[in-house]
Hints:
Blueprint: H1 2-19, E1 33-41, E2 44-52, E3 57-62, E4 67-72, E5 91-95, E6 98-105, E7 110-113, E8 122-125
Antiparallel strand pairs: 1-2, 1-8, 2-3, 3-4, 4-5, 5-6, 6-7, 7-8
Amino acid sequence: MNKQLLIKSLICSALLALTNPAFASWRCEVDRCQEYTNCSLNGVSMACSYRSGGVEYGGVDFENGKVFSIEWISKYFDNNSNLIEEPKDGYFAWVNNTRRRFETINNGECVKFQSNAAFPEFKYGLC
């Protein structure tokens, strides 16, 4: 399982390297990307984009250059890639290789990752 996680991490890192501010801005320049104007990072509103690397992978690029890679945990989604009813302990995803709790707002149009001691709160979508 660790080998599989390492391979997934390397793939995500390679995909995100291409979206790093040194190579591109936060604006969409590839397919499967959506720009948003009302994202936030630690409560500071700014623009961002969500780039999908597939059903299980994506990344959020903020206007200020901060980048988050996301590996979605498949057990929270149905066969149509829609979230199932929220489990009692909440939803989780791997963000920059760290398990992070998230919630959806506005009927799933906005995704908010909660902060913890080491990582900031951020949200993207139609928030």
